Amino acid sequence: MANTSPPAERSRPGARAISAANDSRRVRSGGRAKRQALASAGWAALPPATFVAIILLWAAAVEVFAIPSYLLPSPLAVLNRMIAERDNLIAQALPTLKALGIGLLLCLAIGIPIGLLIALSKVAKQTVYPVVMLTQLVPKIAIAPLLVVWLGFSVQTKVTLVVLIAFFPLLMSSIAAFVSLDDRLLYLTRSMGATRFQTFWNLRLPAALPIIFSGIKTCATIAITGALVAEFLGSNEGLGYALLRASSQLDTEYIFAILVVLTIIGIAINYLIEALEWWLTPWERRQKSGKK
After folding, report:
1. Which of 2, 21, 81, 262 is the most exposed place for a label (fewest CB within 10 A)?
2. 30 contact partners, CB below 8 Å, separation of at least 6
3. How far is Cα 10 from Cα 6, in angstroms, rounded to an integer?
4. Which class for 148: exposed (0-12), middle (13-18), buried (19 or more C-beta within 10 A)?
5. How far is CA 129 from CA 92, 108, 139, in A?
6. Number of helices (H), then strands (E), in the chain
7. Total Cβ atoms within 10 A of residue 257
8. How far is the C-alpha of 145 from the C-alpha of 157, rounded, in Å?
9. Under a CB-based contact definition with an 8 Å cutoff, are residues 241 and 231 in contact?
10. At what angle are helices 140-151 and 155-178 packed, to 10 degrees?
11. Dihedral sign, CA of 143, 157, 223, 125?
12. Rounded Cα distance, 202 and 196, in Å
């Protein structure tokens, strides 16, 4: 007798097996996505967790070894001092931020163009580069008293010292960035009839930006040190000046409070630079997402 059941009835067991396999695959895919999300969250939480662990170890060491507060205050004591001195800390931070901001902008305006000039011009490499290297061989601390004599206790002294200390790493990274382009790409753009400006804007500058931003991060870190050194030697205001006064009075709690403020400033500047890099280099984001 011929089988008169519909084709759907005959294929139902196979269809159920395929559906079950698809459901199992979706479950495994969902589980894998959850594990990846948890791993990403854990990886992102690792830096703050490390910071919290250091704070806890600090507090435990103070309690266990009974360290006097004039040697190492507890984190809670530093936090209370920061709250009590918040107005004074803000007032002292503003001059430092002003000198730091102006100095960083001048480093960008000076370091990157000179780096481009030295990278692309043999004449500039033979004339400008030796002069820049000579200025770096002179200790900046030795120049600071001259700046005080010439410019006085002013923001110009601090800005000048910040630029002298911080611009060299940015200059070197700019030179390395602009010469890192593959010559074959330049031959390709020339063969396609691109002008020098088009080659620079569409090829050389985008290829150089990641290296330049690495130099900017280094420059910003050194610039904070430069601002503090300038306030140590030639200023009557700012976090460096407050740090010097607190050190002379053995006010350890206030010294740690100033160090915390400086750390916050450094972290904020670093995140600001990373946000700017994220915005200006979208192709880097696509590459990183493709690797993931």
Report:
1. 2
2. none
3. 7
4. middle
5. 37, 17, 18
6. 13, 0
7. 27
8. 10
9. yes
10. 140
11. negative
12. 10
Maximum Cα interatomic distance, the chain, rounded to a whole number of Å: 115
Q: Give the tokens for residue 189.
A: 């753009």
If one counts every other C-beta atom within 10 angstroms of the C-beta of residue 96, the result is 26
Return all residues near 245 (Cβ < 8 A) that are at least 6 apart.
none
Structure tokens at 152: 């006085």
* Tokens encoding 13: 């067991």
Q: Please, which residues have CB within 8 angstroms of residue 107's CB and are 6 or more apart in sequence?
A: 162, 163, 166, 167, 170, 219, 223
Closest to 216 in 3D by CA, of 125, 107, 120, 121: 107
Burial label for 127, CB within 10 Å (0-12, 13-18, 19+), is exposed
What is the number of other CB atoms lying within 10 angstroms of the CB of residue 124?
14
118: which 2 tokens?
């030295």
What is the rounded CA–CA span in Å between residue 4 and residue 37? 52
* Residue 244 neighbours by CB under 8 Å, 6+ apart: 231, 232
Provide Rg for the chain, Cα atoms. 29
- Side-chain half-sphere CA neighbours of 210 within 13 A: 11
Which pLDDT tens digits describe the chain residue by residue (292 residues)? Answer: 445 555 544 445 555 555 555 555 665 656 666 777 777 777 777 778 888 898 899 889 988 888 888 888 999 999 999 999 999 999 999 999 999 999 999 999 999 999 999 998 889 889 988 888 888 888 877 887 888 888 877 888 889 989 988 888 899 999 999 988 777 877 878 788 888 888 888 888 888 999 999 999 999 989 988 888 888 887 788 999 999 999 888 899 999 999 999 999 999 999 999 999 989 888 777 666 555 5
